[in-house]
Amino acid sequence: MGWLKRNWGEFVGPEASVAENTGSLASAAAGTVAAPLLDAGRPRGRKATAGLSLIAMDIWGGAWANNTRSCARWYERPGQGTRQHVQFAALHVHPFAIAAYDRGLRERTSPMLWAGLTYGYMMAATVTIRRFPEHRRALGVLTTLGAVALDRKLGPSPTAGWFAPAFATKLLLGHASAALWSDTALTTAP
After folding, report:
1. CA–CA separation, 52 vs 56, rounded Å?
2. Is residue 53 helix, strand or coil?
C-alpha cells in the first residue's frame, strides 16, 4: 500500500489533502461515467466507450488535480522547470485520440486539423507561459480562454464537446501556470 501512496503523491503532490484527493478522484470518476453519456457521436462498442471514458478520467481528474495547491506546489518545486512542463504537455496527445472518435462526424473542421491546431496551441501556450513566469497567472487565464475560443471557432468535438475547456483547464490554467495560486502559496509550506 505504501507504493500506491508514494506513486499517487508523485502524481498529485505528496501534500495533497483529503479534500484535494477526494476532488481529484471524484472528478475522474465523473468524467469516466459522463463522457459516454455526453457523446453526441455514433453508438460505440465496449472498447471504444472504455477508451473515451479513460480519456475523460484523465482530463477531468487532471483538470481538478492540477489546479489544487498541493499539485501546483509539486510541479513548481525546485528542479521542475520549463523543460519538465513542456515534456508533460507534449505527452498529452489526447486531441488526436478524440479526432479518431470524431471521424465522419465533424462538419466545420477536419478531425486531424482540429487535433493538430488544438495540440499545437496547447504546446505554444505552455511554452509562452513558461517563458514569462512573472506573468504566469494572467497568461494561464488568457491562454485557457484562448483555447476555448479556438475550439468554438473550429467547432467543438461532436464526441466530446467538453474536451477543449477541460484540456485547457488541466494543462494551461493548472499545470503550466498554476494560475489559481500566488507565488507565496506555492512557496510557503501548508
Report:
1. 6
2. helix
Average pLDDT, the chain: 93
Give the other-Cβ count within 10 Å of 79's Cβ.
Answer: 5
Domain boundaries, the chain: 2-187
- The one-letter amino acid at 113: L
| Distance in Å from the first CA to the final CA of the chain | 25
Q: Taken in order 80, 23, 120, 33, is the CA torsion positive or negative?
A: positive
Tens-digit pLDDT profile for residues 87-122: 999 999 999 999 999 988 878 789 999 999 999 999
Residues 6+ apart with CB under 8 A from 65: 11, 12, 20, 23, 24, 27, 71, 174
Query: What cell does 148 get?
Result: 476555448
Say how far apart CA 63 and CA 165 lie, in whole Å.
9
Chain centre distance of CA 188? 25
Identify the pLDDT of residue 6. Answer: 81
What was the pLDDT predicted at 145?
A: 98
Q: What does the alpha-carbon distance between residue 140 and residue 128 come to, in Å, rounded to a whole number?
A: 10
Question: DSSP alpha helices (H): ranges in the chain?
Answer: 2-12, 18-38, 46-65, 69-75, 82-90, 94-102, 111-131, 136-154, 163-168, 183-187
